[in-house]
Amino acid sequence: MFTKAKKTLVAGTVALAFGLTATGAIAAGMPPAPSAASLGAVIVDPYGNAPLTALIDMAGHKITDVKVTIHGKGDKGVPISYSVGAQSLKNYDGVPIFGLYQKHENKVTVEFKEKGKLIKDEYTIRTTAISNKYMDNRSLSDLQQTKVVKVAKGFEDRLYLVNTHTFNAQGADLHWHGEKDKNAGLLDAGPASGALPFDIPPFTFVVDTQGEYRWWLSQDAIYNSHDVDINKRGYLMGIRETPRGTFTAVQGQHWYEFDMLGQFLVDHKLPRGYMDATHESVETPKGTVLLRVGKRNYVREDGQRVHTIRDHIIEVDKSGRVIDVWDLNLILDPLRDSLLGSLDAGAVCVNVDLDNAGKTAKLEPDTPFGDALGVGPGRNWAHVNSIAYDQKDDAIILSFRHQGVVKITRDKQVKWILAPAEGWNEKLAPKLLKPVDANGKPLKCASNGKCENTDFDFSYTQHTAWLSSKGTLTVFDNGDGRGLEQPALPTMKYSRFVEYKIDEQNMTVQQVWEYGKDRGYDWYSPITSIVEYQKDRDTMFGFGGSINLFEIGKPTIGKLNEIDYTTKDVKVEIDVLSDKPNQAHYRAVLVRPENMFK
Questions:
Q1: Beta bridge partners of 327
Q2: Are strands 254-258 and 274-275 parallel, antiparallel or unpaired?
Q3: Measuring CA to CA, which residue among 229, 253, 362 is closest to residue 307?
Q4: Cα dihedral 16, 21, 26, 28 in deg (nearest 10)
Q5: Phi, psi of 390, deg, nearest 5
């Protein structure tokens, strides 16, 4: 038997237990006093950064065995249920509420034990509408729209965090700049140096399988383009879950750790000497964090000082101190251009140029230093977009969009390279993995990566080369520059989810699984995107973040998919439409409330 108590209204920020009202619009007057069994105040958006969350204050109560249910909207709405552990109750001094609908009177049930009694409290928590604060004269909705294509039975409870952005009409208005003084050794190629202009307002939310927003990160939490402040600028990227159920992320000159109530637990500026953090952040089992950054005032062999582009990895501790550095200019070959000269000039990362879509990029020897396609330190020769940490040998696996996938040891030695053979120098060529079939028989592959009589293929301009729970390597193979060339027609391109088995002792690679090739150009994502194996449902989860990027005047589709590993049946397909035409999304990740509040 449950003892029941009810608290009826929170509209605005706080409703205290005995009638103290809050700031905000109170539509139904003051709430009635709850029974003695009820907990304390209900605080909507307790940290001011996540308006679709709330916190029920403990008010001195000692409770255990807490379970929260946010009831679905209407007959088909998706309920969200999760347990709250003792540590979370201590951290928040209350019961965390995650998964509220916007502009809705949310029905919430909280069950718990107190003094041996089972108690069930019912709450009605009202939220306001969320909005995109960075509107310009666009024709689409202020929020990104979703379209549910398919949700199979057993997957209704899935929740996906979409890491995307809302592009400003004004474009970037910040640039790094240095003095042009050869005598002082400070030769700087001008205001395009570095990647500071990689600066776009965030648009970060959780979507359920009905296409409803169930969480929203306030754009004001870490970003402000209304002021000229580099510490509130950048491109929020690399959102990755930690073992604690929190998330790490990077944006411009900062790296963060935050939780899903909107509390920022860590907000560190990048260490001195480093800049322009984008794409990736990942916590290692040691509690350190790996970040992809650029290097300030890097001295080239010719003596010029440049700000480098996406070619350094740093490892930091929780205090933000640097533990280790991987200077990829010294580890790989920054002059290799085999793939660089095969790319589509219409899209390099999110630098979209519709006028040159489908044309082969041209490499110029005098390309200015800065965030531009080119070779050598100070240009975008590497474009590292993901990091995986391999605990078994304390090494990192990097996805170089413009080179391939590479494993590098702690002593800064290349262990293996997964890429076509063309263009690697004498030092690195012996590190190339040799493709084999399921029986270990070598495959015949040309230097451009094209292999005969096999489904094996390398990945091209790939993202998220991560280790799976099975020990395999999963990769989102974007597919631009496949075979180190542009196809006869752009519509011949395709992307894939692909899985490789790597034998490090024998230096071989076997392709063990793929999906997407048969879906063709309609499923093609030229840039961004993610794939990650999900052990709990035996699926490949992925997000193609830039489908229809070159369809002029149309929103770009970010396609959320879960694919059955055995049958390759589509279990989930949800489209997220960009709020402005021809603008890419970045990534998405699965979120599990039961992991957030242990």
A1: 312
A2: unpaired
A3: 253
A4: 70
A5: -105, 105
Alpha carbons within 13 A on the beta-carbon side of 427: 7
**pLDDT score of 27 more than 80:** no
Marked catalytic residue, from 254, 383, 463, 585? 463
Sign of CA dihedral 50, 56, 60, 64: negative
Distance CA 39, CA 571 (A): 40
Identity (one letter) of the amino acid at 47? Y
Q: For residue 484, report the phi and psi dihedrals to the nearest 5 degrees.
A: 60, 40
Burial of 319 (0-12, 13-18, 19+ CB in 10 A): exposed
Helix (H, G, I), strand (E, B), or coil: what is residue 574? strand
Task: Please state, in angstroms and rounded to a whole number, the distance separating the CA atoms of residues 170 and 151.
Answer: 38
Angle at 217 between CA 9 and CA 280, to 5 degrees: 155
User: Residue 438 corresponds to which tokens in the numbers above?
Assistant: 């399921």
Token output for 79: 């309920």
Three-class SS of 5-55? EEECCCECCEECCCCCCCCCCCCCCCCCCCCCCCCCCEEECCCCCCCCEEE
Which residue intervals of 43-187 are DSSP H helices?
Answer: 86-92
pLDDT in tens, 128-175: 999 998 887 665 568 999 999 999 999 999 999 999 999 876 667 888
**What pLDDT digit, counting tens, does each position of 73-93 carry?**
999 999 999 999 999 999 999
Please confirm, yes or no, whether 585 is among the known catalytic residues: no
Tell me how crowded residue 78 is: count the other CB atoms within 10 A of its CB. Answer: 21
Residues 167, 144, 216: CA angle, nearest 5 degrees: 95
Contacts of 300 (CB under 8 A, 6+ apart): 306, 376, 377, 378
Altogether, the residues listed in the chain come to a count of 598
CB 271 within 8 A of CB 322: yes
Tens of pLDDT, residue by residue over 53-68, are: 999 999 999 999 999 9
Cα(475)–Cα(282) distance, rounded to whole angstroms?
Answer: 16
CA–CA dist 247, 257 (Å, integer)? 5
